[in-house]
Predict the 3D structure of the following.
Amino acid sequence: MEGPGSRLILGIETSCDETAAALVTEDGELRANVVASQADLHAQFGGVVPEVASRRHLELVGPVMREALDQAGATLDDVDRVAVTQGPGLVGALLVGLAAAKAVAWSRRLPLVPVDHLAGHVASLYLQPDPVEPPFLCLLASGGHTLLIDVHSHTEQTVLGTTRDDAAGEAFDKGARLLGLGYPGGREIDRLAREGDPEAYDFPVARVPGLDFSFSGLKTSLLYATRDLTPDELEERKPDLAASYQRAIVRALVGKVRQANAERVAVVGGVAANSELREALADAALAPLALTTDNAAMIASAARFVEPVPYPGYLGLDAYASR
Ligand code: KG4
Ligand code: ZN
């Protein structure tokens, strides 16, 4: 692994409940992508418990980095710089990744690249074998954010719209909880919706001015639809409720994308894994399925377009919870 082009960027991501490490080349070639999901650990609580997440990151971050190096057949000698998510996310969780990144970079006198998690999601599009080049309109829909971003270049972007309340993924997760489905809820609703009738319930799409979104009213409609049902009725209607609920979320997302009237559209973030959304926006550039939910490949990818902080100036870097 000598010579130009073979130097690797080690990416680390711990902003929520995935502990992830990846190795990416300067050209955006993915050499390793390891994601240890804590979903099962948090499922018993119905959502992510920050303190539990931090502790689990601490246990996993070392092994996950080692596994990524093994997968790539590389050692730290091949690593050129270390990229890590600085925020937004759970601060306690972010700090574990940041401390690990500092430790690795410091021990090898390497530069460190602090990466914004949302820029990371967008950069999931920039990886080989089919990189999507800006400009494009990007729908970023995840558990924490719902944004319409005008991506001018790898480094310049303008936010055109955002959610006024819940994020799209949050709406999926909260809806799933109301239906007694597992965590994380998006995937569960997606699965169950295939057995249901999406027109069975007429859930509302919020009318929000401009390119902003709102999902809290939808969640309330689902609550009203479920609370009059007996447990048996709920069980029977669950697929229809899931299908109709998903239809309303997808309609809201697609509606705003169409309203933005962009020539080229791209979709990223955990909700970009949704099968109905992918079908509805089949003409858009969709992030590769494996890179929709949180991962470190997208963080290493984004790092290619961020100025590295040289040794040892990064030791004082702090995490941030929100932008
Ligand atoms: O991007 P991500 O992994 O983490 C954040 O940055 O928030 O997104 C996680 C979100 C969760 O809300 C999850 O329910 C949702 O993505 N999600 C889905 C699907 N897979 C994951 N939502 C709808 N359909 C899916 N298939
Ligand atoms: Zn994310």
